[in-house]
Amino acid sequence: MTVAGEPSGDQLGAELVGALRQALAGEPFAPRFFGAAGPRLAAAGVELAFDLTRHAVTGLVEVFRVLADFRRLMRQLLDLACERQPDVVVLVDFQGFNRRFARALRQRVNAQRRRFNNWRPRIVQYVSPQVWASRPGRGYALADEVDLLLCLFPFEKDWYARRVPRLRVEAVGHPILDRHRGQEKLRPAGPPEPAPGVTSLVLLLPGSRAGELRRHLPVMLETARLMDIRHRVRFRLVLLDASLRGLVEEQLRTCSVPVEVRIGGLAESLAEAAVAIASTGTVTLECAYFRVPTVALYRTSPVTFWIGKRLATVNSLAMPNLLAGTRVMPEFLQGAATPGKLAEAAGNFLTHPFLRDAVRAKLDEVVAQLGQPGASERAARAIVSLLSAGARS
Fold this sequence. Notes:
The chain is of the alpha/beta class. The chain folds into 2 domains: about 1-175 and about 375-390, Rossmann fold; about 190-370, Rossmann fold, CATH 3.40.50.2000. The chain has helices at about 5-25, 40-45, 60-65, 65-85, 95-110, 135-145, 155-165, 175-180, 210-230, 245-250, 265-270, 280-290, 300-310, 320-325, 340-350, 355-365, 375-390, and strands at about 1-5, 35, 45-50, 90, 120-125, 150, 170, 200-205, 235-240, 260-265, 275-280, 295-300, 330-335. It has a 7-stranded parallel β-sheet, with helices on both faces. It has a 6-stranded parallel β-sheet with strand order 10-9-8-11-12-13, sandwiched between helices.
């Protein structure tokens, strides 16, 4: 059973399912997959009860608005799990929903255990919650919720080993190393400097959820207007899939600057870009992988930001900054994420070649901390090992 509730998790899960099929190819029976996720896992052959990625939200305010829907979907998934009784349940990121699902499933399984009902699924969490960034107590609770935690960064395994040694943790590396393998050759040293009269490409990467687009895109479009006045540039907005195109086009109608919209093809756009303006998240690591100087931003509801600021134990949201230990990407959060500040930071990258070179060198150091290629294969082998250990016990 596979559960993924966000577009990024849907892609991550689809890559894992492909690796699991290969890892289990020699077994007498072919593996069967079902659950709730999105179009990528469906295309990978997972039988979906419903598309959970359509319900992806960010921030406490948005969550409260759809809380009744989440409770209904969780009950549906719990019933489905007990009906189908999978050997393993793989929960891909989507921490708020998936951790509650893991606890509820544990409780229901324990309540139903009888002499002739000894079903006990192995529960795997793929992608660690950022316990090292806020609320470290969540790490201790994980040991009771899951049988295996697959994390993307080597330092996360060390964090758990020091604090929660009874939790089984495997660091598998980051899948973007496989996702873009070979494509970095498109720009071995960054894009060539534009010739006189040629415009530089600035990428706008507002996020993959509707709420992120509503909060980030107006700021980005006003930033583009300011940059258009001061620099010879062109703008391209890249979306992960077509589901949010209508929302984007609605906002572009009032934009005075031409903005090209592309669905997919992020690697090709990053290979061409001089600068990116991006929402904090996985996409900043992809910008780092392609050595694109990036300005990061994030906006959420005032309540969510107020609570998050008091819980956080780190001073950055962009993972490249956390890995580098410095602001390799200028980062603007909440009220600080103004068009003027974003335009100035992005413009500095365009007008100062020495700054671009220094940032690219730092981004190389960031990418070196992402592990080695083969993340999905390592994750699949860890799950097969978990299943084998369970069968022996």
